Amino acid sequence: MLIDYSKAMVPVALALAILNTSAFAAAKTNQIQVAYEAPKERDLEIIYKDMKERRVLERLQEFLSPFKLPRPLKFTFQSCDGEDDAFYFDYDVTLCYELVDELQWAKPRKTTQDGLTPHDAVAGPFFSIALHEFAHAVFELYNVPIFGREEDAADQLAAYIILLLDKTVASRLNRGTAYAFLTESKEQKSESTIEYASEHGIAEQRYYNVLCLAFGADPKRFSSLKSKKILPEERADACQDEFEQIEDAYKALILPHVDQALAKKVWGKLEVRTK
Q1: Contact, 100 vs 48, CB < 8 A?
Q2: pTM > 0.70: yes or no
């Protein structure tokens, strides 16, 4: 007996649709939870206290509150046995104190010639990394289909969200993120194959990707990236298309899960400290 699979699949597809709809119907804003775990290492206590006093996670919690999530998502600051890392697993984003320590160590001692402040050199990459891990979470929570490497998609979503902010804030965060990637690229050993085999793109490539999205979003504001040949002309000419591709994906897959009224209220008042 031949089975008509087109008919057999209808109940399955309908059931999946009902399950997905009910899950998203239960989604709501303000689903971000935060926690600070006291480190055992004395040299990390200063960072622990500083992050708590600055209410870093609480500010991140407010920033992400417009996303309607089907279940709570927790951000935890903790020590990671010496690893300067951040990662997402099982509805929990872990941000390591060692990561902040590494960013503070790598920052310039004073404002650079192109206007990058020491503070932005830390705030930019930290915020981008937090959003990168958040992207992994929403990919899972929203069942977002991904072609290619998920790490690249997470980078792109993080960069795009930053570019939704006030232009001055976005510019400062973008510049800080690019600086961190460029600094990391100088530390990577070009003769090693480890970086090329990683699930992440190499740092120098991520540096150009961040700059390209910024230029694609606002060619006039970031015109110096092309005029000063920071971005190769061949890449710069394609950046608007790259940005529009990511924007289309965001509007189709992510934006339906965002409370736009709350986003306008929360994201419009985001400020980046100068020190």
Answers
A1: no
A2: yes
The string of pLDDT tens digits covering residues 165-194 is 998 999 999 999 999 999 888 776 554 555
Q: Are 254 and 157 in contact (CB under 8 A)?
A: yes
pLDDT tens per residue across span 120-170: 999 999 999 999 999 999 999 999 998 888 999 999 999 999 999 998 999
Q: What are the residue boundaries of the structural domains of the chain, listed by start? A: 28-267
Single-letter residue type at 44: L
